[in-house]
Specification:
The chain is mostly helical and 369 residues long. The protein has 2 domains: 235 residues, no CATH class; 131 residues, no CATH class. The strands form 3 sheets. The chain has a two-stranded antiparallel ribbon with strand order 1-2. The chain has a two-stranded antiparallel ribbon with strand order 3-4. A two-stranded antiparallel ribbon has the order 5-6. A hairpin with a 3-residue loop joins strand 5 and strand 6. Helix 12 runs antiparallel to helix 13 and helix 14 packs across helix 15.
Length: 369
């Protein structure tokens, strides 16, 4: 493709804008009315707690059924997203930019004193734009941070399904594509099955909502996490049986570490006395968990996440670095985030954190880092 063709492909059409707005409209409406478990968020500095309606799996299932019915009736093209990938990318980027602008304006003019909406203005425009001003801004009763994460994860699945349909349509479906699709689908469905665990993550409880999170959720997650699928559309990779087995082992190991660590952290916050691996938990200073995965490394969940990211790329073989963009980026991101989290915890817990570091000396990968 020449530069002119690329620019034309990046120009949003009314169709791509309509698809995007319809998608957000669906999530806003059905996310608010469909039944779901009401989960209490962490206690904020002012003593308040937010509430989250965790019906993401039901919203996902209903949307897939509606789209499947539309495809069967001939109203919807299964390759609509795959055919307009760059259009949707640019439209979503523009939407993210506009949303961040509104968040900045509303946040900087807010006089709210509550922890969720209290403005944190540093005076540095770039810093405030990037990291955000308010912790949990809302729109018409919708917690935007929680909403954007859900939109990004479900968007990743929809892109993958459309890429899969395009692969079948083009007649180049192979084991690599099937393996990639299965791993991603399982990961995304698992995310929504355990959606309540998201309410105790760093993003939800500590990060303010600025361009970093809005762009990361709406653009980065769906459009970069799916690079492997786009790459496999144009590159034929035939995996050996041994490669398939090794890939499956990497996925299973990554999943067990990732899900196990996050489950232990979530359960500990709900019940600090709950047994871990059949034993009472070891707690440093009455606050920091040092049992289970959290006794192996201080951010053991990141190791699981990295192994999962690697397993999404391994079906693409090793002929190109392009499919490995996601695990490479994630490695950089998680190390950066781990460093920020360590600094925040050192300031918050002081001597308790120093004791915890002695008890659990490894950051992410035992005996390596």
């Amino acid at each position: 493709m020449d530069l002119n063709s690329i620019l034309q492909s990046l120009t949003p059409s009314w169709t791509s804008v309509g698809l995007l707005l319809s998608y957000f409209g669906y999530l806003a409406i059905f996310g608010s009315i469909l039944p779901g478990k009401i989960v209490h968020g962490v206690t904020l500095a002012d003593g308040t707690r937010l509430h989250y309606r965790c019906n993401g799996l039901l919203s996902l299932s209903l949307l897939v059924l509606l789209l499947g019915g539309g495809v069967a009736a001939g109203f919807v093209s299964p390759t609509a997203i795959a055919d307009r990938g760059l259009e949707l990318l640019s439209a979503t980027f523009i939407f993210s930019f506009a949303v961040t602008l509104l968040l900045y304006i509303v946040g900087s003019t807010s006089h709210d004193k509550g922890s969720s909406l209290k403005p944190h203005v540093s005076g540095n425009l770039i810093h405030d734009w990037w990291f955000g001003i308010q912790l949990n801004p809302q729109f018409m009763g919708i917690d935007l941070k929680f909403f954007f994460v859900r939109a990004g994860m479900l968007g990743w699945l929809l892109i993958n399904l459309s890429v899969l349909a395009k692969s079948i349509q083009d007649g180049n479906l192979n084991r690599s594509m099937v393996l990639y699709q299965l791993f991603c689908a399982f990961y995304i469905l698992d995310y929504f099955f355990y959606e309540e665990y998201m309410t105790s993550t760093w993003d939800i409880i500590a990060e303010r909502l600025g361009f970093m999170l809005v762009f990361g959720d709406l653009v980065w997650i769906p459009f970069t996490f799916s690079i492997q699928g786009w790459w496999l559309l144009r590159n034929n990779v035939e995996l050996t049986s041994a490669a398939v087995v090794a890939n499956c082992l990497a996925f299973i190991m990554g999943y067990r570490i990732f899900r196990g660590a996050n489950r232990q952290k979530h359960d500990f916050k709900k019940n600090p006395k709950a047994h871990i691996w059949g034993k009472p938990p070891k707690v440093i200073g009455g606050k920091l968990l040092a049992s289970g995965y959290w006794g192996i490394a201080r951010h053991c969940n990141y190791l699981g996440d990295l192994l999962l990211a690697l397993s999404f790329s391994l079906p693409c073989g090793i002929s190109s670095p392009i499919p490995y963009f996601y695990p490479t980026y994630l490695l950089i991101l998680l190390i950066w985030r781990e460093r920020r989290d360590e600094a925040r915890c050192a300031e918050k817990y002081k001597d308790i954190w120093a004791e915890y570091r002695k008890t659990v000396p490894w950051r992410i990968l035992p005996y390596v880092y």
